[in-house]
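Project outcomes to date are best conveyed with an example. Our students and postdoctoral researchers have been running inverse folding experiments weekly, and each run begins with a structure described purely in C-alpha cells. The record below, which covers 397 residues, was selected by the lab manager from last quarter's runs and is presented without edits.
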C-alpha cells in the first residue's frame, strides 16, 4: 500500500523553521525554548507544553467560551511559540477559536483580538465556509501550490502544525549541536606517584570529595573514561576522553602516545604532571619530606619518553601541553591564584625550572602550545583551568 503523504524527512528538507511561526508568537533567529498548547478541556483548562520538558502547565481560561470544535482535541491552535510563554486567551481570540463572555468589560487587548478575528472571518466567525482560517494579517494574497498543499497534508498527518514544528526544531537543534561538538582526548602523563590519577579524577568530576580521592587505589593499567556530558566551550561543546596512564610503565605510556586517533585528528591535549615528592605528606611535614631531590631529578629523565615522541614524524602531536605542578596544597594554604601563594609558586618554579625549560624547548621546536599551572587535586585548585586552556587553543577567538 502506497502512502501519498511525504515522509517527515521531506518536510524537514523543504520547510524552513521560520515558516512555522505565526502572528502573536515571539520568534527569533535562535529559539531556545518552544511552547505549544496540547489540549483544552470543556471546562476551559488549557495544557501548555514545552519542548524537551516533561512537566505540563495547566492554565484555566477565564471569561471566554472556547469554540466547541477545538475542545478536547490535540493541538487546538496548530502553532508553536518561540522563547516566550503565550497568552493563550489572546491567541484563541485572535484566531476566532473563542468568544469573550463579557466583551464590554474585557481587557482592551482581548477586545481588539476578537474584533480582528471577526473582521477577518476567522474560526467560528467564518459564517460562509464554517471552518477555521488561520490569521495572516501581513499577507495580501492567499496563494496555494501543489507542494504547499502536500506539505500541509503531511503536517496534518504527522499530528498537526505544532507537532511538525517541534519535530523539525528537535532535528535542527540536534544537528546544530552535533556540528559544534568535539571529542578531545586528555592524556595524563607523569612519573609514578606524581598525582595523575587524583588530578584525572578531579577534572572529570569536580564534585569528588577528598575522602573519595584518598580511597582511589593505585593502578598499573591505563584508565579511560568518556565524559558523561559535553562541556560548554563558547559556541562549541567538547566531550573529553580522560586517559590516565600508569607511571613507571613506559610501554603503556608509549602505546597511548602513539595510538592513532583517526576521527579526532591532532586535537588532543597532554597533561604532564610534576611533583616534589612521591609520598603522602601534608603542609605540616618537614621540608625534607616535601622535597625529594632524587625524585625531582628522576622526573626530568622521565620526560625523555613523551618529549621524544613529540618530535617523532608519525606520532600525532597534541594541540596543547599543560605542565601541571601538582600537590600545591603541601606548600600553601591558599589557592595558587592568591597573592599569598606567590612565595610557594616561586619555590616550585625554581625546583622545576629545568623540566619546564626542557618541555618549552621541545614544544617550540614542533609549534605546540605549552602552559604551566600549579594545581591541587585534593583541594580542587586550578583544575578547572585545563578546560579554559582547551577552549582557547581549540576554538580561538
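After processing, the design step wrote out the following sequence:
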Amino acid at each position: 500500500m502506497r502512502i501519498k503523504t511525504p515522509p517527515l524527512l521531506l518536510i524537514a528538507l523543504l520547510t524552513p523553521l521560520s515558516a512555522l511561526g505565526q502572528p502573536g508568537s515571539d520568534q527569533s533567529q535562535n529559539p531556545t525554548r518552544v511552547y505549544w498548547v496540547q489540549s483544552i478541556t470543556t471546562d476551559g483548562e488549557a495544557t501548555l507544553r514545552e519542548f524537551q520538558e516533561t512537566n505540563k502547565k495547566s492554565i484555566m481560561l477565564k471569561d471566554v467560551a472556547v469554540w466547541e470544535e477545538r475542545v478536547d482535541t490535540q493541538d487546538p491552535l496548530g502553532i508553536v511559540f518561540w522563547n516566550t510563554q503565550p497568552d493563550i486567551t489572546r491567541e484563541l481570540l485572535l484566531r476566532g477559536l473563542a468568544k469573550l463572555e463579557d466583551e464590554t468589560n474585557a481587557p482592551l487587548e482581548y477586545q481588539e483580538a476578537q474584533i480582528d478575528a471577526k473582521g477577518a472571518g476567522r474560526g467560528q466567525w467564518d459564517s460562509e465556509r464554517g471552518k477555521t482560517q488561520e490569521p495572516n494579517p501581513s499577507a495580501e494574497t492567499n496563494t496555494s501550490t501543489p507542494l504547499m498543499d502536500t506539505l500541509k497534508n503531511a503536517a496534518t498527518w504527522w499530528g498537526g502544525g505544532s507537532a511538525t514544528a517541534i519535530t523539525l526544531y528537535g532535528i535542527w537543534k540536534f544537528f546544530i549541536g552535533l556540528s559544534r561538538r568535539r571529542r578531545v582526548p586528555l592524556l595524563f602523563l607523569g612519573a609514578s606517584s606524581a598525582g595523575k590519577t587524583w588530578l584525572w579524577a578531579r577534572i572529570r568530576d569536580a564534585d569528588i570529595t577528598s575522602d573519595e580521592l584518598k580511597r582511589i587505589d593505585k593502578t598499573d593499567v591505563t584508565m579511560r573514561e568518556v565524559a558523561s556530558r559535553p562541556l560548554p566551550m563558547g559556541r562549541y561543546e567538547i566531550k573529553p576522553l580522560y586517559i590516565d596512564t600508569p607511571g613507571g610503565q613506559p610501554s603503556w605510556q608509549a602505546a597511548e602516545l602513539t595510538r592513532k586517533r583517526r576521527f579526532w585528528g591532532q586535537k588532543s591535549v597532554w597533561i604532564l604532571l610534576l611533583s616534589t615528592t612521591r609520598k603522602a605528606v601534608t603542609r605540616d611535614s618537614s621540608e625534607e619530606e616535601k622535597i625529594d631531590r632524587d625524585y625531582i631529578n628522576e622526573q626530568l629523565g622521565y620526560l625523555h619518553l613523551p618529549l621524544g615522541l613529540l618530535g617523532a614524524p608519525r606520532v600525532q602531536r597534541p594541540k596543547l601541553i599543560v605542565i601541571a605542578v601538582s600537590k600545591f596544597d603541601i606548600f600553601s594554604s591558599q589557592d595558587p591564584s592568591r597573592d599569598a601563594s606567590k612565595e610557594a609558586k616561586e619555590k616550585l618554579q625554581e625546583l622545576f625550572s629545568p623540566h619546564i625549560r626542557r618541555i618549552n624547548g621541545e614544544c617550540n621546536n614542533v609549534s605546540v602550545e605549552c602552559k604551566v599551572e600549579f594545581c591541587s587535586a585534593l583541594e580542587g585548585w586550578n583544575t578547572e583551568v585545563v578546560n579554559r586552556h582547551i577552549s582557547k587553543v581549540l576554538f580561538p577567538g
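Residues 161-179 form the longest helix (19 residues). The mean pLDDT is 76. The training component of this project remains on track.
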